[in-house]
Amino acid sequence: MGTLERLAEQLADDTMKVQDATGQDRLFMEVSGVLAASSQTLEEAFLTEMRVRLAERIARKFLNKKIAEAQAATEGDIKS
Question: From which domain of life does this come (predicted)?
Answer without folding.
Answer: Bacteria
